[in-house]
Design a protein that fits this description.
With about 325 residues, the chain is mainly alpha-helical. Helices cover about 65% and strands about 10% of the residues. It has ten helices and three strands, in the order H-H-H-H-H-H-H-H-E-E-H-E-H. It has a three-stranded mixed beta sheet. Helix 1 runs parallel beside helix 6.
Length: about 325
């Protein structure tokens, strides 16, 4: 995902959430609705989250240093993880607390037209933001379902905005339902129930975001299609006859590290091997432009050694490969 595409969706969400947060807080002051207070804090937390995503994108653009030789691409993952923490603590826990208090000490809503009007406005504004996020995500999603896109995307911004906007829309419907039932029944407990449901929803979304960004922070490999492209690019059938084993790792959403042990002919000279490696690196970068760091180690492939149990898929800390592999 390009940074510009993510930034457009983030800015749309930020503008919508700031306007919505202000309108919800005004509605709370006039009506005393706990749903409106929870929703205003929710929108304010979302605004802070979008600011965090923008800050993470900015910091990730810094040049590599001797202390951080692979750059700062993972800053975007760190700030996306912070978003899940903010959404959980500020948004979800606050809404649950407010909902509990309103159920325990209900009171009748005043000036009902304020919360209803603001919620209708908020649904329209959040719908615009959600539409922008969908439009920006569609070209990147390809044939994936929305669930698969959120789970597999290496760039965190669009999945975060999509989940936030979806949660905001569902939360607004819950708030509208709580306020509506409180007005119909004259019982303010319904407003508290709506607020409680909003809190549970926000916590569930925060947990999903935390799980996905944790996986990215730990380090994810390239996608299946990218791996196939890399394998095809490495082997030319002449100087590079095969791949003994290979590892890939995302240093950031648009930065990929590739390390592979490649099979070369046993009678090639050092100069020929070096030339073959340079050519393979050029082919990899042409096939997968985000391949920024490439380490290729030449070796002589042996069918005999392979038959003894060398594990091509062995990982550091896992089963050891056979000698020479």
């Amino acid at each position: 995902m390009s940074a510009s595409g993510g930034s457009k969706a983030i800015m749309a969400a930020l503008g919508a959430n700031l306007a919505i947060a202000a309108s919800k807080f005004v509605a709370f002051l006039f009506s005393g609705s706990s749903s409106m207070l929870a929703e205003s804090v929710h929108s304010l937390a979302d605004s802070g989250n979008q600011a965090l995503l923008l800050l993470g994108g900015k910091k990730a653009q810094r040049e590599a240093t001797p202390q951080h030789p692979f750059g700062y691409g993972r800053e975007r993952y760190i700030y996306a993880f912070l978003v899940s923490i903010v959404l959980f603590s500020v948004g979800g826990m606050f809404a649950i607390y407010e909902g509990y208090e309103k159920i325990k000490h209900p009171h009748e809503l005043e000036h009902w037209y304020w919360p209803v009007g603001v919620l209708v406005f908020a649904i329209i504004a959040e719908g615009f933001s959600f539409r922008t996020a969908i439009k920006e995500s569609d070209p990147l999603r390809g044939d994936l379902s929305w669930t698969e896109f959120v789970r597999r995307a290496k760039a965190p911004e669009l999945p975060v905005v999509l989940l936030e906007d979806f949660g905001a829309l569902v939360g607004l419907v819950l708030a509208l339902g709580g306020v509506g039932m409180a007005l119909l029944t004259g019982d303010g407990v319904w407003d508290g129930i709506g607020t409680l449901c909003i809190g549970v929803l926000l916590i569930l979304i925060a947990l999903v975001l935390a799980a996905e960004t944790k996986s990215l922070l730990l380090g994810e490999a390239a996608g299946t299609q990218e791996v196939k492209k890399i394998e095809t690019a490495i082997v030319d059938g002449d100087k590079v006859t095969g791949i003994i084993h290979m590892r890939t790792l995302h240093l950031g959403p648009e930065e990929l590290l590739i390390a592979a042990k490649i099979a070369v002919r046993h009678d090639d000279t050092a100069a020929e091997v070096a030339s073959a490696i340079d050519a393979a690196e050029a082919r990899i970068r042409a096939a997968v432009p985000i391949a920024r760091v490439i380490y290729l180690e030449p070796d002589i492939y042996s069918d005999t050694e392979a038959a003894r149990g060398a594990d091509r898929e062995a990982t550091p800390g896992g089963p050891s490969a056979a000698p020479g592999h």
